[in-house]
Design a protein that fits this description.
The chain is of the alpha+beta class. The chain contains 18 helices and 22 strands. The strands form five sheets. Strands 1-2-5-4-15 form a five-stranded antiparallel sheet. It has a five-stranded antiparallel sheet with strand order 3-16-17-14-13. A five-stranded mixed sheet has the order 6-7-9-10-11. A hairpin with a 5-residue loop joins β13 and β14.
Length: 569
C-alpha cells in the first residue's frame, strides 16, 4: 500500500488530467459509427453518469461467430435524496421504453439507472433526462456521488431544514464543468483563461476515487450512514435542527484476493452546527482530494487514507483548515432501521404508500405488471416519488381514498403489498451483477430470489418465519448492495460460489464478518440450518440473528454446526 505518490500516478489519473475537465474525445466519438467508446472516453464517461457495458450472456456465442460484443450503456441519474415528481418518473419510463431495455432500476443510492442504451441513443437519452431537470453528471466517477437522505416524506419544519441543507451540500460539492452541457445538450463551448477556474473544488483531476455522502436522522439508520465516506447524522431539537454529527471513512468495497483491502465502517469525527456543515464537509472532501492515493486505485478510497494516516491526523488537518478546534461528536442512538413501506399518514393530512420493488427492478413479467401499473398510477394521481436506499419507492401526497385505490390497482397487477411479504424478502437487497456489470464474477439479482425462497422455507420449518433479518447479495466483492453490514451477506467469488458473511447489526451500526469462503450457493440453506437452530435455542429475548452470531462468536457457531452434523449421521 506504500507508494511514492510524487512520481507514481495511475493510468486513470493521467486520463483525468489530460481530459480537459471531462471533455476528452467524447463529443468526437459520439459522431463515429463504432458501437463502443475507447478506454479514455470510457473513463471520462463515468463522470457523466455513463458506464459502457456489454451483454455477458452473449459473449461466448458472439465470439464463436466472430462478432464483436453487444455493447450497451448504463446511465445513472443523480437525484438528491431520491425525490422526483411523477412527471420525471414518467420520463424515465418513456426513455427506458424508447432507448433502454424496457426496465428501470432503483439503486441502493436512491436514484434510477437505465440499462441497455445503445451508443447511438446515448445523447438523446441524457438530453431527455435533462428535460425534466435531472442530471446524470455525478452519477458515477471520481467525485461526490448522489447524496442520500432518509426517504420518508415528512413535511415538518425539521425535515424541510434537512432538505435545504442537503441541496446546499449538492450545490457546493457538485462538479461545475461546462463539458456536460457542451456534449449532451449542445451548449455553447466555454473557454476561460484558466481551466482550474472551471472546477474550483475538483481541479483538473477531481478526486482519487468516488466519494459517498448520506444524511440520516438520529434514531433511524435507513440510509446505512456508516457505509459512507462521509456520514451526516442530524440531531433534532423540537422542530429545529440542533446540528450534525459527522462520521468519516466508511466504504464497502474490497478486493477478495487482496488481504489488505477491506470494507470499513465510518468513525465519529465531530459535531457541527447547521451553519458549519457546508464548510466542514467541503474541507473533508478537499483533504481526500489532496492526500488520497492516486497511484493505486485499489487503495484510493477515503477509508484507506484514514487507515494509513489515522483519525487523529485527520482531526488535526481538518481543524487547521477550518481555523477552529473540532467539537466532540455526539453519542448516537439507533432505535430502528425503517424501510418506510406500507400506508401511513404524513404530517400535512396526506398519506404515503411505500411499495416494495424486488432488487429495485421495475419491469413487467407474466405474473406481475409492476411497470405498467406504476405508469398508470403516475398518470392518474401524480404523486411525489421518493426512492429509498433499499431499492423501493414511496408515493407521497395521497388522500386516503387514493391510497385505497392504488393498493387495489397494485393487487390487480400482481404486486404484493408490504404487509404481504415475508420479512426475509422485504429486507433483502441485491446488486445487478450479471449479465450487465463488467465487474461481476457471480450472479446476484437473478440468483437472490431463489435463495430467499429457500431461506423462507427453512425459517418456516424452524418456526422462525416472523424474525426480522437482512439478506444481501452481490456479484463481486465491491459491495454495492452493502453485504458487509447485513445479518447475512453473500458476496460472489465465482459462478455458483459466494463468501458467506454473518453477524451484522440489522440497524447498520456494526459490520459482519467472514464465516465461510467459496460456499456453493446450493449449500447455503444446509449451512444456515444448524446456525439458525442454535439461534432458536440460544437467543436472548428479542435478539436478532446477526446479534446472536456476533455475541456467541464463530467458533461456537462452527462447533454447534459440527455437533449437529454428527447427530444427523
Amino acid at each position: 500500500m506504500s507508494v511514492d505518490r510524487e512520481t507514481a500516478i495511475s493510468h486513470v489519473e493521467i486520463i483525468k488530467r489530460e481530459g480537459n475537465q471531462l471533455r476528452g474525445e467524447i463529443a468526437a466519438e459520439l459522431q463515429n459509427d463504432a458501437s463502443f467508446f475507447t478506454e479514455e472516453s470510457i473513463q471520462q464517461l463515468k463522470f457523466h453518469g455513463v458506464y459502457q457495458q456489454d451483454d455477458r450472456d452473449l459473449r461466448k456465442q458472439l465470439k464463436k461467430e466472430g462478432r464483436e460484443k453487444h455493447y450497451q450503456m448504463m446511465i445513472r441519474a443523480r437525484i438528491p435524496g431520491g425525490v422526483l415528481p411523477a412527471s420525471a418518473y414518467l420520463q424515465f419510463d418513456r426513455l427506458a421504453e424508447q432507448y433502454g431495455n424496457k426496465t428501470m432500476r432503483i439503486t441502493t443510492r436512491q436514484t434510477f439507472q437505465l440499462h441497455g442504451v445503445l451508443k447511438g441513443d446515448l445523447k438523446k437519452t441524457i438530453a431527455g433526462i435533462n428535460d425534466v431537470l435531472i442530471t446524470t453528471l455525478g452519477g458515477c466517477g471520481d467525485q461526490v456521488r448522489n447524496i442520500l437522505m432518509c426517504p420518508a416524506p415528512h413535511r415538518s419544519p425539521f425535515h424541510q431544514a434537512l432538505r435545504r441543507d442537503l441541496l446546499a451540500l449538492v450545490d457546493e460539492l457538485s462538479a461545475k464543468t461546462h463539458a456536460y452541457h457542451e456534449i449532451w445538450l449542445d451548449g455553447e463551448q466555454w473557454q476561460p483563461d484558466d481551466r482550474e477556474a472551471e472546477e474550483p473544488l475538483y481541479g483538473k483531476t477531481y478526486l482519487p476515487r468516488k466519494f459517498k455522502l448520506a444524511l440520516a436522522v438520529e434514531g433511524d439508520n435507513c440510509v446505512d450512514v456508516y457505509a459512507n465516506d462521509l456520514g451526516i447524522v442530524a440531531h433534532r431539537d423540537g422542530e429545529m435542527v440542533a446540528g450534525y454529527t459527522l462520521l468519516v471513512g466508511g466504504g464497502m468495497g474490497r478486493t477478495a484476493a487482496i488481504a489488505d483491502t477491506f470494507p470499513r465502517m465510518a468513525d465519529p469525527l465531530t459535531f457541527v452546527t447547521p451553519d458549519q456543515l457546508i464548510e466542514t464537509c467541503r474541507e473533508i472532501v478537499k483533504i481526500q482530494r489532496d492526500f488520497g492515493n492516486r497511484a493505486d486505485r485499489r487503495y484510493s478510497r477515503f477509508k484507506y487514507l484514514l487507515h494509513e494516516r489515522g483519525l487523529q491526523w485527520f482531526r488535526e488537518e481538518l481543524s487547521a483548515r477550518l481555523g477552529r478546534p473540532l467539537t466532540a461528536p455526539r453519542e448516537l442512538t439507533w432505535e430502528q432501521t425503517s424501510d418506510h413501506l406500507g400506508f401511513y399518514p404524513e404530517e400535512n393530512g396526506r398519506y404515503a404508500l411505500g411499495i416494495y420493488v424486488q432488487n429495485g427492478r421495475i419491469h413487467d413479467t407474466d405474473q406481475m405488471k409492476l411497470r405498467s401499473v406504476l405508469r398508470k398510477i403516475m398518470q392518474t394521481y401524480a404523486p411525489e416519488v421518493h426512492l429509498t436506499c433499499d431499492q423501493n419507492l414511496i408515493l407521497s401526497g395521497l388522500t386516503e381514498e387514493q391510497g385505497d385505490a392504488i393498493k387495489a390497482l397494485l393487487l390487480e397487477a400482481g404486486v404484493s403489498l408490504a404487509e404481504q411479504l415475508s420479512n426475509v424478502v422485504r429486507y433483502a437487497m441485491a446488486c445487478p451483477a450479471l449479465p450487465t456489470c463488467g465487474l461481476a464474477t457471480a450472479e446476484s439479482e437473478r440468483m437472490l430470489p431463489d435463495v430467499l425462497k429457500e431461506i423462507d422455507q427453512l425459517l418456516l420449518e424452524l418456526g422462525l418465519q416472523n424474525e426480522v433479518m437482512s439478506v444481501r447479495m452481490t456479484g463481486c466483492s465491491n459491495g454495492c448492495a452493502r453485504p458487509y453490514i447485513g445479518d447475512i451477506g453473500f458476496v460472489g467469488r465465482t459462478i455458483g460460489k459466494y463468501d458467506l458473511f454473518l453477524g451484522g447489526d440489522f440497524n447498520g451500526a456494526r459490520m459482519n464478518a467472514l464465516y465461510q469462503e467459496l460456499l456453493p450457493i446450493t449449500q447455503a440453506v444446509d449451512t444456515l440450518r444448524p446456525l439458525l437452530l442454535q439461534y432458536k435455542v440460544g437467543r436472548k429475548a428479542a435478539e436478532r440473528f446477526g446479534d446472536y452470531c456476533h455475541r456467541v462468536g464463530f467458533e461456537a457457531l462452527r462447533a454447534g454446526a459440527l455437533a449437529e452434523a454428527k447427530d444427523a449421521q
